[in-house]
């Protein structure tokens, strides 16, 4: 299916709503039935019928169709956050006594799901270096049921070989889940590599305007129904119809935004790769990146994220560098119109918290939709703070 059809038409049945160009916001918790027979039929399988908005809602249904098609999956679920989507997908696929193999340092709340919550219910895990297939294979135990991937991750961008991981998982009867938030479906479609379940923090690129927190699960009809009937309806972490409409609006420009961020990011990384005050760049499409070939093989682009380590003798010099930046906002998250910087030094020396394992001279950048030359000017000025 063509991207243009998915983004601008799929799932939209305009005749049903006065030929309106934009999808309607069906802000209703409840849906009525004409007779007992249709009521009985709906209650018989809520996943196929619109009864109550915690299950199905027409605005959310339009969004689900587009997201499933974008990931080349059969179906999709939309949840109130990426974290909720991860929790629902994982919880619906494990039971007490099971073991999960997960790539090391996943997204922080994924880490907490495995370490703080699932261990309380008898589900164990092993974190492995996902850049090495042998490490994943060695960690598989007789009771392993799930392989959890995140490729690339969103700070230092380690990848996993998706095709190889999917093959390994199939051989061992494991379900594979990947957090695909970094690449978006525009640049990476894990289902086509044999991965079973794709998760997104739609808060990032898919919504793309920094105004909605939303999570996505894409998979086969069978696995989506399993999650729907199990944790989706029980956790009830749904998105509101009006937020779903905002995400639908965000999707209209998804391809444009991704291409713009990617192009600008390439230009800025190229400027930085020649800069004498940059010690190291973390960016999958840079030929010096350790997994450059794999990145090129399984992704068509990168979006706007990269990290650098700047040359500095002391943390205060990195702080000075950061303070000189005027056109990058200090914030977590990414994927909106605005460029951001996340200086790891800002995670150091927080009372009651351990310092992170990442070095203090690392800064994660997100390139939004601004003119890249205007951003380079800002970086150029900030580098004057370094020795
Ligand atoms: C932000 C993020 C999440 C969590 O998504 P929320 O929408 O904030 O709950 C999960 N994984 C990655 C890689 C993220 O960047």
Fold and architecture overview:
- It is built from 14 helices and twelve strands.
- The chain is an alpha/beta fold.
- The chain folds into two domains: 3-251, Type I PLP-dependent aspartate aminotransferase-like (Major domain) (Aspartate Aminotransferase, domain 2, 3-Layer(aba) Sandwich); 254-385, Aspartate Aminotransferase, domain 1 (Alpha-Beta Complex), CATH 3.90.1150.10.
- Strand 5 (175-179), helix 8 and strand 6 (197-201) form a beta-alpha-beta unit.
- Helix 4 (82-91) packs across helix 9 and helix 13 packs antiparallel against helix 14.
- It starts with a helix and ends in a 5-residue tail after the last helix.
- It binds pyridoxal-5'-phosphate.
- Pyridoxal-5'-phosphate is lined by residues 81-83, 107, 154, 179, 181, 201, 203-204, 213, 215, 333.
Feature tags:
387 residues; 7-stranded mixed beta sheet; Aspartate Aminotransferase, domain 2; binds pyridoxal-5'-phosphate; globular; 5-stranded mixed beta sheet; 14 helices; 37% helix; 12 strands; Aspartate Aminotransferase, domain 1; 2 domains; single chain; alpha/beta
């Amino acid at each position: 299916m063509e991207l243009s059809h998915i983004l601008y038409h799929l799932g939209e049945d305009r005749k049903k709503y006065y030929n309106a160009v934009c999808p309607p916001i069906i802000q209703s918790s409840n849906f009525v039935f004409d007779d007992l027979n249709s009521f009985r039929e709906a209650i018989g399988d809520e996943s196929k019928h619109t009864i109550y908005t915690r299950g199905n809602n027409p605005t959310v249904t339009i969004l689900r169709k587009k997201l499933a098609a974008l990931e080349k999956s059969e179906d999709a679920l939309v949840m109130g956050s990426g974290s909720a989507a991860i929790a629902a997908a994982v919880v619906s696929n494990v039971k007490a006594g099971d073991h999960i193999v997960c790539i090391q340092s996943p997204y922080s709340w994924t880490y907490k799901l495995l370490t703080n919550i699932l261990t309380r219910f008898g589900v164990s895990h092993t974190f492995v270096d996902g850049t090495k297939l042998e490490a994943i294979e060695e960690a598989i135990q007789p009771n392993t049921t799930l392989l959890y991937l995140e490729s690339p991750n969103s700070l230092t961008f380690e990848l996993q070989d998706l095709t190889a991981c999917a093959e390994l998982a199939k051989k061992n009867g494991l379900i594979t889940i990947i957090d695909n938030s970094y690449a978006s479906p525009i640049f990476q479609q894990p289902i086509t590599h044999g991965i079973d379940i794709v998760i997104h923090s739609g808060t990032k690129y898919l919504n793309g305007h920094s105004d909605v927190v939303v999570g996505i699960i894409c998979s086969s009809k069978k696995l989506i129904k399993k999650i729907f009937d199990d944790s989706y309806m029980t956790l009830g972490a749904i998105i509101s119809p009006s937020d779903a409409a905002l995400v639908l609006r965000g999707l209209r420009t998804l391809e444009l935004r991704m291409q713009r961020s990617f192009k600008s990011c390439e230009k800025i990384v190229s400027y930085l790769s020649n800069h004498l005050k940059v010690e190291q760049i973390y960016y999958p499409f840079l030929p010096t990146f350790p997994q450059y070939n794999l990145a090129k093989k399984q992704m068509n682009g990168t979006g706007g994220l990269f990290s650098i380590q700047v040359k500095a003798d002391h943390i205060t010099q990195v702080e000075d560098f950061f303070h000189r930046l005027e056109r990058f906002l200090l914030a977590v998250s990414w994927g909106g119109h605005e460029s951001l910087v996340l200086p790891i030094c800002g995670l150091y020396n927080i009372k009651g918290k351990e310092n992170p394992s990442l070095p203090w001279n690392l800064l994660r950048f997100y390139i939004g939709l601004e003119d890249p030359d205007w951003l380079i000017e800002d970086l150029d000025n900030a580098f004057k703070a370094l020795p």
